[in-house]
Structures are given as structure tokens and as C-alpha cells.
Design a protein that fits this description.
Radius of gyration: 24 Å
Number of domains: 2
Helix content: 25-40%
CATH superfamily of the largest domain: Glycosidases
CATH architecture of the largest domain: Alpha-Beta Barrel
CATH topology of the largest domain: TIM Barrel
CATH class of the largest domain: Alpha Beta
């Protein structure tokens, strides 16, 4: 009996040793997750690949990591809550609506979004123009009322919060003050904020933040103005750099502080990268204004312009740069892989040039790419077809997941170089110690490459028109 018991213990010990060794081996392996255009791979995890000691490095491109070289930390990735997105999801069944929210916010089965945006007053992706106070001259904002948001927009945000495990920060941006505060008496077509209403407009921000707070929705940050250099046929308002700086310095910053809301961060610019230097340098060079500014918002509509982000970061390294909006224009682009590649290319480029996060525009739109109250239809990663009661997941949805699912808040960018510029790469180390490398191939041909870390290498193939995520401890 004793001999049998001893034998059983030996077998158990050996089994445990095998399990421990297997787990250690698995930790040394590299996970491979792929989305590729001409395949069925959509965030598909393949067989793990083992590191090897290999000199010289195998033929092909080389992606070399230097974990000792570190850069910015990530705040998060996510998308935007708009009235249009909420309306589109109101036209599909409750289970489809819940599915879309889980696809974005569930940290286990979805993208685990951690940083989102919404609009103060209406934007073009609203059903029409609206403001929370339309009473001309009410500078004390006694008639301030967010009940319009409570019809569609706020329930969408609340339901996203209710997704199991969801945890996200919320940035709020205005497209226009109420018409009565503007020089053109119109929420559309540009115009400027009248100087006599600067205090009232700053108070408007505070009222908005407090009204959302009363409903259990914390506003993490606000931007001064969406696209302050663009006169649009939809909701818009023009600021010069001097006007934006003055508004922050003398009105918005002090008002939020006075109202006990100084923890709410302020972003300036919130527009394209092409003229970012000309726009932020005058504001951030003035200490009295800069002290209220947390960071800088950027959009992608002018093109890459990545070098401009380096210039801004070098001059103002304490002011984070955050991508706050990007989408594919021109309506819905079903079965077109180019929007997905545009997303991944811009995200990798922005991340490699100091950006701390990336927010998509509308998370969901209808089959036309709306609704939009001026017909400015665009694309979205998920299309909600209310006529057929179905959700269409586009390539951009899966490509976004390669970043938001695996590069988590607090992750730090590490040194990453690639010998072939046709393979676009970036690398991060998460707070749990895992390293994530994303490799984008926008070409028509597969690319053979090796991942190299010190004297360890591993060989991979990047399929044509694919995004590959590699993860290891």
C-alpha cells in the first residue's frame, strides 16, 4: 500500500513538473494573431512560434526590438458615441444592439475600448442642429437642458458602461456653441464665438460636465473646439490660435477651476496634423494659457504629416498628443479593404510619433453611412442595417482590434526598427510585462520577416494585405 502511494506521488510530481515546464515553454512562445484581406482570418490566432538562437538572422526583413529604449505611455483606444450611432442602433433588434456594444466594449470577447469621445451640442452626425440652451442672452444658463441627449445618446453611453468589464474614459468636444453666441447666428457655416459670450460659453462646459456627472457619466476631458480652422456646412466655429489660447487662459481654464472641475483635462487644436505646429505653438508658448492645457488633439484628414508630431513633442514634451477623430469619408465602403489599411497605417504612424491614443469616429452607422443632417455620409467599422436587421463588420473593425485588444492603457512604446519599409511596425510593452508587435503589410505580396530580440529570433510570413500581432512575455 505504501509502495503504491509512493508511486502515485512520484507520478503526480512528474506530471506537475511537465505542466510547469509546458507553461514555461508557452510563455516563451510568441502568439500570432492575424487579419488578412483574402482569407478567412479575422483576429484569428494561429499556432505559437518559438524563439530560436539563430545567427545569422534568416533571410528576409528584420524587425528588431530594443525593450530598453522607451517612449510614451498609452492612454487608450476607442471610438465615438454620436446621436447618429445611437439612432442607427435603435433601428436593429435589441440583441443586435447589445452585440455591437459587446463587440466594442467587452474586454474578453470584444475590443475592450478604453477611451471614447462624444459631442457637446449637435455635430454633423446628429439628426439635426440642437443646443442645450437656445435662450438668447441667458448668460447664466438658467435654461440649460441636456434632455435631448437623454433620448438616444446618453442611453447608448450608459449601455456601453453596463457591458461586463467595460471601463473607458470619455472626451467631449463641441462642434458649435448655440447660434445666439455666434457672430453668424448659425450653428453651421463657421462663424466665431462673440467675445461677450466667452464667459457664458466656458460656463456651458461646466454645466455640461456637471449634468453628465449627475447621471453617473464622468467626463475625463474636453477639447476647446472640434476643427477650429474649418468652416463647414454643418456645425462649426472658427478660432484663431490667439482666440483659442485666450479662451483657455481667461475663460475655460479659470471657469473649470472655479467650478471644482480642474481635474477635467483640456485639449487644444482637435484638428489636422498639417498645421499643428502653427496652431499650438502660440498657445503652449504662453505659460498662462499652457498651464491649463493637458494635451493636443489631432485628426487625420490632411494626410500623414507624422514629422509634425515629432516637432511638437520635441518642443512641448509634457503635452500628450491624442488622435481624437478619423473616419473614411464618402459613405459606406463595403468589401473595400483600403479603409482598414488607412486605419492601421495612420495608427502605427501616429504611435511611432508620440501619440498616446487613438479614437475612431462613429462606432456604428446605418447602411447609407448616416444619418447625417447635411448628407455628409461616412463609413464606420460596424454598419447597422436596420432594413435587414443585421450588423456588418468591416475590415476596419478587425484592424482596430489589433491595437485596442492587445496594447492596453499604461503600455509603453519600445524601440522597434524594420529593415523593409513595406512592413510597417510598432511595438509596446504592457504593464503585465507582455510585449506586443504589430506588423502591417499593405502590398500585394507576402513578406517574409524575422522578429529579433537580442540574440533570439523567430521567423514569420506577413500575408499580402494583412495585419499581424505578435505577443510574448
Amino acid at each position: 500500500m505504501k509502495t503504491a502511494t509512493l508511486g502515485a506521488l512520484v507520478i503526480l510530481a512528474v506530471s506537475l513538473l511537465v505542466i510547469v515546464e509546458s507553461q514555461a515553454m508557452n510563455r516563451q512562445n510568441i502568439r500570432v494573431i492575424t487579419t488578412a484581406r483574402d482569407t478567412a482570418d479575422r483576429l484569428t490566432e494561429g499556432s505559437p512560434v518559438a524563439w530560436t538562437k539563430s545567427e545569422p538572422v534568416p533571410a528576409g526583413a528584420v524587425v528588431e526590438l530594443d525593450p530598453a529604449r522607451t517612449y510614451q505611455s498609452i492612454v487608450g483606444f476607442g471610438g465615438s458615441f454620436t446621436e447618429s450611432a445611437a439612432y442607427a442602433l435603435s433601428k436593429v433588434s435589441a440583441d443586435k444592439r447589445a452585440e455591437a456594444l459587446a463587440a466594442y466594449f467587452d474586454p474578453k470577447t470584444g475590443h475592450g475600448y478604453t477611451l471614447c469621445r462624444t459631442h457637446i451640442n449637435s455635430c454633423d452626425f446628429s439628426l439635426d442642429n440642437y443646443a442645450y440652451n437656445t435662450t438668447a442672452g441667458d448668460v447664466q444658463l438658467q435654461q440649460f437642458d441636456i434632455s435631448r441627449d437623454q433620448k438616444l445618446l446618453i442611453p447608448l453611453i450608459e449601455d456601453a458602461k453596463a457591458v461586463r468589464g467595460a471601463d473607458f474614459k470619455l472626451l467631449a468636444s463641441p462642434w458649435s456653441p448655440p447660434a445666439w453666441m455666434k457672430t453668424n447666428n448659425d450653428m453651421n457655416h463657421g462663424g466665431n464665438l462673440k467675445p461677450e459670450y466667452r464667459d457664458a460659453w466656458a460656463l456651458y462646459f461646466a454645466k455640461y460636465i456637471k449634468a453628465y456627472k449627475a447621471l453617473g457619466l464622468d467626463i475625463w476631458a474636453v477639447s476647446v473646439q472640434n476643427e477650429p480652422a474649418a468652416t463647414q456646412v454643418w456645425d462649426s466655429c472658427i478660432y484663431s490660435p490667439q482666440e483659442e489660447g485666450l479662451f483657455v487662459r481667461d475663460h475655460l481654464g479659470p471657469t473649470l477651476q472655479r467650478e471644482g472641475l480642474d481635474a477635467v483635462k483640456i485639449l487644444i487644436w482637435d484638428h489636422n496634423k498639417d498645421i499643428i505646429w502653427e496652431r499650438v505653438q502660440p498657445i503652449l508658448s504662453e505659460p498662462a494659457a499652457a498651464k491649463y492645457v493637458w494635451g493636443i488633439g489631432i485628426h487625420w484628414y490632411s494626410g500623414d504629416n507624422f514629422e509634425n508630431l515629432d516637432k511638437v513633442h520635441t518642443a512641448f514634451p509634457d503635452k500628450p498628443i491624442l488622435h481624437t477623430e478619423g473616419c473614411q469619408e464618402g459613405g459606406v465602403h463595403l468589401n473595400d479593404w483600403k479603409p482598414a489599411e488607412r486605419y492601421a497605417h495612420d495608427i502605427i504612424g501616429d504611435l511611432n510619433h508620440w501619440t498616446v491614443g487613438w479614437i475612431d469616429w462613429n462606432m456604428v452607422l446605418d447602411e447609407r453611412g448616416g444619418p447625417n443632417h447635411v448628407g455628409n455620409f461616412c463609413d464606420a467599422p460596424i454598419i447597422a442595417d436596420g432594413k435587414q436587421n443585421k450588423l456588418i463588420y468591416q475590415g476596419s473593425y478587425y484592424y482596430l482590434g489589433h491595437f485596442s485588444r492587445f496594447i492596453r492603457p499604461g503600455a509603453v512604446r519600445i524601440g522597434c526598427t524594420v529593415s523593409d519599409p513595406q512592413l510597417e511596425t510598432t511595438a509596446f510593452k504592457n504593464t503585465d510585462g507582455s510585449v506586443v508587435v504589430n506588423c502591417l503589410n499593405r502590398t500585394d505580396n507576402p513578406i517574409q520577416f524575422s522578429l529579433k530580440k537580442a540574440d533570439n529570433t523567430a521567423a514569420f510570413t506577413s500575408a499580402a494585405h494583412s495585419l499581424v500581432t505578435l505577443i510574448f512575455d
